[in-house]
Amino acid sequence: MKCPFCDSNDTKVVDSRSAQKNNAIRRRRECLDCGHRFTTYEYVVEYPLTIIKNDGRREEYDRRKLFNSLKIACNKRPVPVDKLESVVIDIEKEIEELSGGEIASNVIGELVIKYLKELDEVAYIRFASVYKKFKDLDEFKDQIERMSNLNGSKN
Ligand SMILES: [Zn+2]
Question: Which of 36, 62, 110, 147 gives 20 to 30 Å between its CA and that of 124?
């Protein structure tokens, strides 16, 4: 990302948050050469995608569901939110290459496992161990939430 003040390519992200309404990711960046700060918005291209669930039901792809599953897997792990956002974008890119508008939910699960493995060992094991049992992101989410509630009540 080029600095709009001095054209330097040396910029870093200092803050990142999603602007949910516009489906955009807002980033504050700082130029490492001139020190100016500026804001960028990254828009994710929307395309229709149907998920085929394990029981054969179909539902519309929901980016938030994918993001939340990653977030839950990385709960209390030192993984910044913007990392999770870029994993979502990477996974969507792979889905786009793999699918003709429809994709089995377990393919997405396998992609999540692949990326978590690179991202964080604990999150990877957490996700993989539960996911292998259920093979479904929804059930994964429910199960993990139940587990963390149990842990919470012990403390
Ligand atoms: Zn600059």
Answer: 62
